[in-house]
User: Fold alanine--glyoxylate transaminase from Saccharopolyspora karakumensis.
Amino acid sequence: MSDSLLARHKAVLPDWLSLYYQEPIEIVSGSGRHVTDADGNTYLDFFAGILTNAIGYDIDEISDAIRRQVDTGVLHTSTLYLIRQQVELAERIAELSGLREPKVFFTNSGTEANETALMLATQKRRSNQVLALRNSYHGRAFATLAVTGNRGWSATSLSPVKVSYVHGGYRYRSPFSAFSDADYIAACVDDLREVIETTTAGDVACMIAEPIQGVGGFATPPDGLLGAFAEVLDEYGILLISDEVQTGWGRTGEHFWGIQAHGVTPDAMTFAKGLGNGLAIGGLVAEASLMDDIGANSISTFGGNPISTGGAHAALEYLLAHDLQGNAAKLGSQLLQGLRSHDSALIGDVRGKGLMIGVELVAPGGKKPVPEAAARVMELAKQRGLLIGKGGLHGNVLRLAPPMTLTESEATDALRILTDAISQAEREL
Assistant:
């Protein structure tokens, strides 16, 4: 990438809009699971625009759907008019949701989807009290920052809601980490009940939870935890919102929605990212009794526009027709197995499901986080032609989330590059 573009970026964009790599790259083209930067270097992309390019790059079926709408001359009409593509996509998502009486509302991002879900729940329950999980991330707007349980991403303590945080999402550093699955769940349920009884007025609006914590480093709780939470929530009439922005659309391999691993049907699910394969789209699907309980006028200017919903519908049908959920399960298992068998004292934990894998790097012989090791592994992987992400409370977790069209040979190549990079970083540190 040219120094001039970096200088221009720094001059006109916020200081907090960080860039990856010592020498940031400009991605100018892509095909399949590979991208090419402005200097002509090609990389295997294992972060996919932060899990957004779920199908990959230059997919004919998606591009054709977008072109068909562009060719009509109508890029936008707003929700004040009927939008056929919006209705058709909503029907498909409602069918796939598993909810009893689902209705769908489209937004432009996961942040906006979660803001809408919080608005619906607080309105429904006439309460501004919310439960969230420690180490969580739900967006960068006012209410979603408030329910984010990760200091690195929570820019302010000012809030329109009153939040109480509970244990459970991030097991590796939990005080209950040594417990069996059953005992861990029991301890977290006891904590939830105590939090409700001691830090709230009882009439809590909702709990919002990620089935796997994305920004939090793909932290993966035991299956059934959120289902056990739901039993307590039901006693108090508290709604459950599943944040599926990163776990939706089959990425976890074993289920279409991440919450399904927990044996419970939530009151609402929010979504974004992979649905549009790069198009700006988000939304939520919720029980009609919740979705319709707004006593004021409301529209969405850009949410559900014909370009985004038409392209997203094509992406969703491609994902289903090619069983990308099954592919995520198969290749995710290959990657998890390979990483867990790699002998490196830097690796403290390998976790995740499907094509959503976190590798937590620690100082050898303990659990002290080493964010500098994660940064170095990322640089070394890039030098070898592999792009990965990072996250976690301490910035020491490597995040792997390639397009779900990943091939077996590409998974093998990525595993080789990544383990080589980890080994080199270990030798250097």
